[in-house]
Amino acid sequence: MKRSEINKALRDMEEMAKACGFALPPFCHFTPEEWKKTGHDYDEIRDNMLGWDITDFGMGDFDKVGFSLITLRNGNVNMEKYTKPYAEKLLYIKEGQSAAMHFHWTKMEDIINRGGGNVLIRVYESTSDGEFADTDVTVHSDGREYKVAAGTQVKLCPGESITIYPGLYHDFELEPGTGPVLLGEVSMCNDDNGDNRFYLPAGRFPEIEEDEPPYRLLCNEYPAAE
């Protein structure tokens, strides 16, 4: 991705959060110059990769497969000093974008429509060899439990949520014509390095072409504290 595309995506997400009345924590507003001056008192952000993020799942087509996100809080399964067993993210998805099909080995999460249009969450149970199971899926959504056929897209309107259990394949896209969506994710501790199982091979961070200065640093770009 070009840095200019990333900068626009982050600005768009900022505007969406503002429109939905979701105030971001102070570190989300740090400029690249301010990050150079931060000391070890911000190591939790560096170590746990909190803050701005972009993924295109390594597919190089962000406008179709990918989205912008912010990790607001998280523990760390590899560092004993961070004992939080939970995580929270915001995701911004514009029309035409989608997330790659995947499940989590350990993490349970709630995906919440925080505002905007409607999101469609496709669900499959997984088999022991990582394929789609041809069995009904039990959906847990805002206190309601019901069953749907394998591959059903569960629609979440603003304010609605779905619980994703370990081993449950899921992807998501927007209902056409309803507009962009701000999604919330409340989950167990997040480990992107070891807890994701993608149905098709996928990457994590995009390669960046530096065609203009960064508007915000991404969570994998922070300079070390002096």
From TrEMBL:
Which reaction is recorded as catalysed by this protein? Answer: D-lyxose = D-xylulose
Q: Which cofactor does it need?
A: Mn(2+)
Q: Which UniProt keywords apply?
A: Carbohydrate metabolism, Isomerase, Manganese, Metal-binding
InterPro entries for this protein: D-lyxose_isomer (IPR010864), EcSI_cupin (IPR047581), RmlC-like_jellyroll (IPR014710)
Q: What Pfam families does the record point to? A: Lyx_isomer
Q: Which domain of life is it from?
A: Bacteria
Q: Which CDD domains match?
A: cupin_EcSI (cd20309)
Q: Which family does it belong to?
A: Belongs to the D-lyxose ketol-isomerase family.
This chain's protein is named: D-lyxose ketol-isomerase
